[in-house]
Each structure stands twice: as C-alpha cells, then as structure tokens.
Amino acid sequence: MAVISRGFGGHRRESDPDLPPGQYLTTDFPVLSAGPTPRIHTDEWEFSIATESGAVHKWSWDELHALPIADVDTDIHCVTRWSKLGTHWRGISLDTLFEGVDTSYQYVMEHSYGGYTTNVPLADLMGNKAWIVTEFDGAPLDPEHGGPARLLVPHLYFWKSAKWIRGLVMQKSDQPGFWEQNGYNLYGDPWKEQRYS
Ligand SMILES: Nc1nc2c(c(=O)[nH]1)N[C@H]1C(S)=C(S)[C@@H](COP(=O)(O)O)O[C@H]1N2
Ligand SMILES: [Mo]
C-alpha cells in the first residue's frame, strides 16, 4: 500500500514545500551551543535594548510577563541542515518591546548571557517576525534550548535566534557576531541558502 508521509507521525517528505533547499526534516530537537549552558534565575534575569542616545530600556522577568504574550507556530532551520516544522512557542513580540524605543540605527547586535552574539537588521525583528520566547511546546523553555528566554527569528537560520538573550544593542552599521566572524553569512536566509560568507 502507498505510504502517505505528510501529517503521519510528524514526518513529512523531503520534497515538502516548507523545507528550504539543502535541509532535511527532523522531529528531534538537537541542542547546538558554542559553550556551556548558563543558568540564569528569573529573579536576576534582565533584558535590555540600548540605543545610540545612551538610553537603555530594561525589563525584569515580571515586567516582561506583564506584556501581551503571543502564540507562535513556525518552522526552524539550522545551518547544519536540520529543519523542524510546526514548532510551537510562546513569547513577546519584538514589536511590543520596541514600541517605546527611539532609534535611527538600522542594525542590531543580539547579546546573550554567556557572551554569544549575532547580528540582524532591525527590519528583520519588526513586523511580527521575531519574539522573545519563554515557552516551547507548552512548557517553560529548557535551559539547553535557551531558557529562561531566547530570541526567535525563525525566517533566518537558527543561529540568529540567540539563546539566553540578555539584550539588544542598536548598531549604526551591520557588524558580524560570533558565528559571522567565523565564516557564517552576515544575513542567513535559508531560502537562498546563505550559509557561509
Ligand atoms: N547564546 C547562544 N545562542 C545560540 C547558540 C549558541 O551557541 N549560544 N547557537 C545558535 C545555533 S548555531 C543554533 S542552530 C541554535 C540552536 O538552538 P537549539 O540548541 O535550541 O537547537 O541556537 C543558536 N543560538
Ligand atoms: Mo546552528
């Protein structure tokens, strides 16, 4: 008998139109970290956005959770070629966090607890395309996957989704972050296979 793989047991065909070129599907959730997993207690956790004027907008864990929370269903694509379709997250839209932020800079450096950095244009964080997520699959985000909170920018390769996010710094020009300095593409569009520079 014919086996229809779409929608069966979560496996879908490699010809799936939602799968970017050169990617394969996985139902696992691999952990990819450049260093040890930092442990950040939510009572010490803080997120900030710093701009060219010297202003630093800060949110504690409780302040973050006072903001409207969004349900996010999305596909994720790692440059090491695994993709995971239909992942479910909850978090706060970057549009919400940027509401009171005044900047004319167009680029952002993401900074994580532990020192990881990655760069992204501000336009890629706006328009309901990026979130600070605190839940995955109905449970608090695992520390290995970036808990208590990570950035989620799913339309770019997953290295742009900084785990253990600590803050964003507005940048006048697009500067390479950690992996970008080590040969990864400055932008990272999975549909254009922008893997390396
Ligand atoms: N802080 C931090 N964020 C990070 C990384 C990292 O090493 N440190 N790795 C990136 C890479 S290369 C990928 S593919 C994803 C992996 O996320 P996961 O471990 O939840 O699958 O996180 C990204 N964010
Ligand atoms: Mo990655």
Gist?
The protein is mainly β. It contains three helices and eleven strands.
N-to-C SSE series?
Answer: EEEHEEHEEEEEEH
Radius of gyration: 17 Å
Return the domain count.
1
- In terms of structural class, how would the helical and strand content be classed? mainly beta
Give the uncertain stretches in residue-range form. 1-10
Our measurement of the CA-to-CA distance between the termini, rounded to an integer number of angstroms, reads: 46 Å
Give the CA-based shape.
Answer: globular
Defining key terms:
197 residues, mainly beta, Sulfite Oxidase, Chain A, domain 2, six-stranded mixed beta sheet, five-stranded mixed beta sheet, 3 helices, 11 strands, 7% helix, globular, disordered N terminus, binds the ligand Nc1nc2c(c(=O)[nH]1)N[C@H]1C(S)=C(S)[C@@H](COP(=O)(O)O)O[C@H]1N2, binds molybdenum atom
Overview of the structural elements:
By secondary structure, this protein is mainly beta. It has a single domain (46-192), classed as Sulfite Oxidase, Chain A, domain 2 (Alpha-Beta Complex). 7% of the residues lie in helices and 31% in strands. The chain has helices at residues 61-65, 94-97, 178-181, and strands spanning 24-25, 46-50, 56-60, 70-77, 82-93, 107-112, 117-121, 131-136, 139-140, 150-152, 165-171. Strands 1, 4, 5, 8, 9 and 10 form a 6-stranded mixed beta sheet that branches. It has a 5-stranded mixed beta sheet with strand order 3-2-11-6-7. It starts with 23 loop residues before the first strand and ends in a 16-residue tail after the last helix. Bound molecules: ligand MTE and molybdenum atom (MO). Residues 32, 78-80, 158-159 line the site of molybdenum atom. InterPro entries: OxRdtase_Mopterin-bd_dom (IPR000572), OxRdtase_Mopterin-bd_sf (IPR036374). It holds the Pfam family Oxidored_molyb. Residues 35-179 form the Oxidoreductase molybdopterin-binding domain. This is Sulfite oxidase-like oxidoreductase.
